[in-house]
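F.,

This is the one I mentioned.
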């Protein structure tokens, strides 16, 4: 076997025809050509009238697949490959970090009757289920069961209801909490974008700094939770104190019942 033939057969600089690349990657020849047209795959090295591909093309195809698996569309992948050189796995790790759940909480499946019982009801109003779905805390399944996406919130709701809070008021509270949490989330994301991502982007997204950006995103998660909890404890303490002062003042006044006012009128 000649040296040229050996080079085409194996090794890091192995060269493949488009048919061999298709078999190696499991893609069709048509899709490989489509990737080239979209700018997802660099052109082959042409020798004579034949185009040859190498391990870099294999790596690019595998990277594209991984990013598709992470939810990126082909145009977004093209832009990413264009700005990162296309062969680094760092962008895939970053995409995973961005799309990873903030905190892993395993959803729980309830029969409709079970959920109703946990809320102290015979039957849950479908309107409450719909509102809960809109808030992203539960989902009605095709078989009629209900998937509770946050068991922690479900336990909180059950305990509030046991204290005398109505299910409607509980959902109202969840809606208010959702709005407050969205505002806090945007604040942290804006901080990350302006203080970490944008300087990295202006620097040309250096290959060696991808891991630092990903690490910053990972560390932001627990920091955000801790900061939000700390601030909540401060504001909750202040709100409780103000409400307590009002409650004590009202406790020293005569009860404002209808019967009391009516009796006062009759006695006057």
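My design for it:
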């Amino acid at each position: 076997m000649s040296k040229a033939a050996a080079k085409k057969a194996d090794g890091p600089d192995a060269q493949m025809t488009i048919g061999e690349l298709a078999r190696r990657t499991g893609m069709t020849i048509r899709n490989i050509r489509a990737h080239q047209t979209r700018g997802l795959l660099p052109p082959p090295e042409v020798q004579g009238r034949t185009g040859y591909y190498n391990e870099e093309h294999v790596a690019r195809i595998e990277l594209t697949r991984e990013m598709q698996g992470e939810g990126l569309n082909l145009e977004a992948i093209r832009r990413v490959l264009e700005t990162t050189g296309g062969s680094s796995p760092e962008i895939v790790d970053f995409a995973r970090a961005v799309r990873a759940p903030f905190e892993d909480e395993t959803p729980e499946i309830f029969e409709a009757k079970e959920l109703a019982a946990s809320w102290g009801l015979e039957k849950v109003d479908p309107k409450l289920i719909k509102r809960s779905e809109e808030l992203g805390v539960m989902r009605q399944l095709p078989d009629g069961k209900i998937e509770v996406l946050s068991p922690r919130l479900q336990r909180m709701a059950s305990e509030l209801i046991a204290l005398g809070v109505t299910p409607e008021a509980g959902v109202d509270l969840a809606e208010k909490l959702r709005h407050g949490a969205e505002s806090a989330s945007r604040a942290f994301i804006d901080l990350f974008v302006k203080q970490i991502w944008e300087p990295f982007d202006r620097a040309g997204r250096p290959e060696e700094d991808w891991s630092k950006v990903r690490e910053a995103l990972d560390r932001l998660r627990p920091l955000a939770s801790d900061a939000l909890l700390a601030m909540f404890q401060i504001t909750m303490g202040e709100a409780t104190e103000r409400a307590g002062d009002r409650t004590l003042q009202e406790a020293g006044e005569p009860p404002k019942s209808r019967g009391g006012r009516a009796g006062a009128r009759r006695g006057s």
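The two ends are 119 Å apart (CA to CA).

Talk soon.
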